[in-house]
Design brief:
The structure is a single chain. By secondary structure, this protein is of the alpha/beta class. It has one domain. It contains nine helices and five strands, in the order H-H-H-H-H-H-E-H-E-H-E-E-E-H. Strands 1-2-3-4-5 form a five-stranded mixed beta sheet, with helices on one face. The protein is globular and about 55 Å long.
Length: 270
Amino acid sequence: MLLFSSESFENSLDIKLTAMTDIKQLRKEFEHYAYGQSLHSAFTGLLDWTLLPFKKWDNAEQQKHALETYQSHPKATKLVKLLELIGEASEGFRDPLGELYQQYISSGHIGQFWTPEYVCDMMSIMSADTLEDSQKVLAPTCGSGRMLLAAAKRNRFALFYGADLDITCCKMTLLNMLLNSLTGEIAHMDSLSNVFYTGFDVQTTLISGYYIPFYTEFTEPELSNIWLHPLKGNNTKSTFEKPFDVKRSEHVRYGCKAHFSRIMSLLFSP
């Protein structure tokens, strides 16, 4: 039996109430931002726009064009305010993006209910006694990335890998990793059939005392650390028959708030 003191209970309750307040405020600002669009299309657009300045492009000209595109967003003021709220609510490896999506957009569509954060924390502890630097952590159906965030609470210097069949989930996890300066890979793929679509390699670079996160996108499965590579030197055909056909549905400073403040100052400075 686990016993909790009244003080620890009150602290956990304060955290929960703060999270509820954050998500209500975030929902309000998101609805202002999404005015004139469906909530789903506004949310997927928000992910794409937010990821844009984090992407590493092939050359300086492409990078410049991407930043100019970002700055010309038709709802730039509302976008920046919304991103600031997301950054603040993400402190402590929390998942406001996933909560917003689950409660107000997906509503459990095709079974998309995320594991509660406190359960993710417990599962992380049960999975391994210790988590060393550069130790690999894999979430084969990552959702919004909560299992990876739970592991990051224990050691942010591990390597984090996640995969999901839903590209929206992949982008939420990717953004959560970028906000917290975590490194690893997110793959848009089917973890059961090993069909690979797109990968996102997530790294950081040190600039003026900040670990600035960035990602590169690739489509070659051979570049992935998650995709199951064929065994070399073994041409024997497996006799295993699939039992079913897979169905597819249609400080150095790391803080989230610090990242948004830094990025916004770079993007929107005169």
